[in-house]
């Protein structure tokens, strides 16, 4: 019996230390999983919270903790079971899904690193403070290879960083970066004015990345940076909608140079029929505001039609009202030439 138990224990140790193939997912606990991304870089994920491990020549560094101390200990123990020396732990922001396990890290005597702004926020909030700070960049060496932690500006939080692994061209974006199709997300501590600008800087510095890892959700390539830049950049419609005091409606759609606001819609082919609608149409120097009980929007043709309603034309730069009229039968066509648009009306009252 004792021999049988010994064989089981030996087998478990062998499993914990065996190599992982690329893309293979290994469950460390019910919630914590490890995925091998490259020869040296591994993803650790716990309840959709992502971090990375970089391994090289018997040394390892871990970025971002799971949210709990228990899972952080599970993660550290797994790395140690690979016969690796953990030379440091990088904290990428002050939120609990990035440093909730820092006390567990400290209990192992592992050195922790963070942006100085993260350390400042932690002190102000009476949170555990990472030991060593940097501003704006830190270069660590793991088995002779560089790992770069870099603060490029405010985004999801004021202090969030990215981590770059030149050897594998892997970029850990943390919660600065959204997964494809990801929500706008938690903006409680966000700097929405700077978010897109910050990720533009990330792309300028690390645009050669082959793998980009968001703070939550599925990893991908450089397209994650573009997706994040686009969802947080100011919409050209934002100022127009606010100036016109437009309230959100069930139909609230951006079609590039046409913006729909309506109580309901129906679709026939490529034509959209909008009920109780306001539709805005963009021009280089002006914009239209069309208000009508029903507006037809032909998406492929970039055209709108309405039987009757109220038309206003504004100067886009000053928002000054240039013209307003009531109409019967309105056709607006966007064009790809210097004319830009045609506005054709059957009857009008000014």
Description:
It is built from eight helices and 20 strands. With 350 residues, it is of the alpha+beta class. It has two domains: 10-232, Metallo-beta-lactamase, Chain A (4-Layer Sandwich), CATH 3.60.15.10; 238-349, no CATH class. Strands 1-2-3-4-5-6-7-8 form an eight-stranded mixed sheet. It has a seven-stranded antiparallel sheet with strand order 14-15-16-17-18-19-20, with no helix packed on it. α6 (192-206) packs antiparallel against α7. The termini are far apart.
Summarize the helix and strand pattern as letters. HEEEEEHEHHEHEEEEEHEHHEEEEEEE
Biggest β-sheet: count, sense, barrel?
8 strands, mixed
Radius of gyration: 27 Å
Q: Do you know the CATH architecture of the largest domain?
A: 4-Layer Sandwich
Give the helix tally: 8
Poorly predicted runs are: 1-18
Count of strand segments: 20
CATH topology of the largest domain: Metallo-beta-lactamase, Chain A
Question: Which helices and strands appear, and what pairs or packs with what?
Answer:
Elements: H1 2-17, E1 25-27, E2 32-36, E3 41-46, E4 49-56, E5 59-63, H2 69-81, E6 85-90, H3 96-99, H4 102-107, E7 112-115, H5 116-124, E8 132-134, E9 137-142, E10 145-150, E11 162-165, E12 170-174, H6 192-206, E13 211-214, H7 223-232, H8 238-243, E14 251-255, E15 258-268, E16 271-282, E17 286-298, E18 303-315, E19 321-334, E20 341-349
Parallel strand pairs: 5-6, 6-7, 7-8, 12-13
Antiparallel strand pairs: 1-2, 2-3, 3-4, 4-5, 9-10, 10-11, 11-12, 14-15, 15-16, 16-17, 17-18, 18-19, 19-20
Helix pairs in contact: 6-7
């Amino acid at each position: 019996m004792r021999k049988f138990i010994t064989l089981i224990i030996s087998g478990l140790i062998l499993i914990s230390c065996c190599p992982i193939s690329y893309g293979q997912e290994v469950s460390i606990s019910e919630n914590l999983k490890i995925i091998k991304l490259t020869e040296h870089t591994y993803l650790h994920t716990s309840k959709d919270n992502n971090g990375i491990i970089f391994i090289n020549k018997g040394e390892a560094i871990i970025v971002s903790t799971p949210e709990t101390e228990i899972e952080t200990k599970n993660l550290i123990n797994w790395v140690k079971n690979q016969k690796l020396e953990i030379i440091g732990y990088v904290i990428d922001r002050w939120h609990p899904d990035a440093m909730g396990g820092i006390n567990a890290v400290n209990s192992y005597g592992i050195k922790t690193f963070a942006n100085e702004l993260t350390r400042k926020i932690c002190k102000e909030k009476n949170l555990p403070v990472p030991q060593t700070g940097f501003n704006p960049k830190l270069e660590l060496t793991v088995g002779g290879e560089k790992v770069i932690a870099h603060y490029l500006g405010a985004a999801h939080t004021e202090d969030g960083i990215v981590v770059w692994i030149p050897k594998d061209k892997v970029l850990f974006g943390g919660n600065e970066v959204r997964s494809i199709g990801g929500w706008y997300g938690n903006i409680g501590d966000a700097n929405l004015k700077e978010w897109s600008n910050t990720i533009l800087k990330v792309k300028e510095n690390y645009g050669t990345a082959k793998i980009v890892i968001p703070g939550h959700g599925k990893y991908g390539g450089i397209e994650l940076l573009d997706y994040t830049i686009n969802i947080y950049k100011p919409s050209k419609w934002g100022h127009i909608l606010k100036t016109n005091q437009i309230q959100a409606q069930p139909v609230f759609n951006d079609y590039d140079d046409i913006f729909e606001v309506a109580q309901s819609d129906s679709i026939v082919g490529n034509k959209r029929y909008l009920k109780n609608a306001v539709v805005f149409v963009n021009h280089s120097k002006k914009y239209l505001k069309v208000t009508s009980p029903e507006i037809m929007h032909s998406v492929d043709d970039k055209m709108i039609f309405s039987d009757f309603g109220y038309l206003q034309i504004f100067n886009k730069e000053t928002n000054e009202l240039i013209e307003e009229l009531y109409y019967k039968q309105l056709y607006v066509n966007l064009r790809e030439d210097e004319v830009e648009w045609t506005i054709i009306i059957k009857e009008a009252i000014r």
